[in-house]
């Protein structure tokens, strides 16, 4: 009983400290940002630019000299600053978990091995304390993704300023996530007896996976009227309405997983992880498979690999002509560092705008929301961030304002409130 009371007390204490700002109201007046350097997100950079948006949509993005007349607009002078598209974090559990030690705040995983019918969408928590700390550094959209099992469930693309998941959703159930069984490798002779059992278990898992897909393909061809939640959830893979995100790192696993998907008539495939993707770029191009790269800020996994391989992996895929994007792979509160892993990629070969595209335009294209967001272009959502310095450089990054669908969002959060509280305390003691 005392442990239950202690946990409840801790949870209430954390709730009391919560500093989640209320979502911004809808845009009611046209806004004109003028004077900044505009980074479109897919390559072009425009000096002395202007961006206009109304009713949540961008109406103009280009040179300030050709901008619409300011009459009727709320004009915001941002001379000397930089305008960027809102960044997008793919493959994350943001909004699905808050406090890892408190089970009631963790909704990122369901029990079971095959869970295609699980939807992260309805578990997304817009009141998470973590979200404001992430958007304060330019990440305005995320792909909320379940984990665990062989098939974890479906992800959805969400924006980070909303009252509930219905308001937050940008694209519901964009794809299913398949954790491809790894191929066991014997590193020591004494591990070989266990290795045999591991291989047998893997073969069994692959057989069960194939059986599920065989049933799903047959089910997708049957007449409407029958109900099967798991098989129905897989149906979108065969008509192209859903993507299959294959999580794999080794070259053999990547090839095996993609060939499995192709054999089962999966239309849209995305590779997640892709540590060895640089080894098989011809295969990825042939199969038209984009890559969500994880683990940029990481050590190489093999002693024979270049020590800087994780850092230069984006450049290697860029040179090979592979469509890719970046994800921050680490603790949830660290997802604010998404622009900085792009900055690392700049130091290891990418241009500034190529790296920006890897966390904005490319991500939107891979997730299937590029017609709505990802670049600063007329007709798209006004998902914008304004920084006083280089967004990708942690030394100069300074987000001064941000807009989601034209709404100017509140950039305060719990951490900033605590910083201000103790700053005032110690300044008063001087």
From TrEMBL:
Top-level taxon: Bacteria
First and last residue of the signal peptide: 1-18
Amidohydrolase-related domain: residues covered: 313-406
GO MF term set: hydrolase activity, acting on carbon-nitrogen (but not peptide) bonds
Tagged with keyword Hydrolase: yes
Keywords: Hydrolase, Signal
InterPro entries membership: Amidohydro-rel, Metal-dep_hydrolase_composite, Metal_Hydrolase, Metallo-dep_Hydrolase
Pfam families hit by this protein: Amidohydro_1
Protein name, entry field: Amidohydrolase family protein
